[in-house]
Fold this sequence. Notes:
Blueprint: E1 2-11, E2 20-29, H1 32-39, E3 45-51, E4 57-63, E5 66-74
Antiparallel strand pairs: 1-2, 1-5, 3-4, 4-5
Amino acid sequence: MKEYEAIREIINQCPLNHSRDQFFEEIECEDPEIYIQQKFQGKEFTYEKIQQKDGSIVFDIFTAGIHQRYTFSEI
């Protein structure tokens, strides 16, 4: 099982407030994509996956009108 530092950002869509809520956690999982699919299981959502040059994996998730971004960096 691999260990990742995960940064979860909730991106505020309000035009007058562009601040982000950020949460940091360490996650053990074999595949971050499966982790995302299980975390949002039972909810209607879409996501885009981007593999960064530094090896981190970024998921932009759209659910219930909210844009969230998860960035996974292997520890």
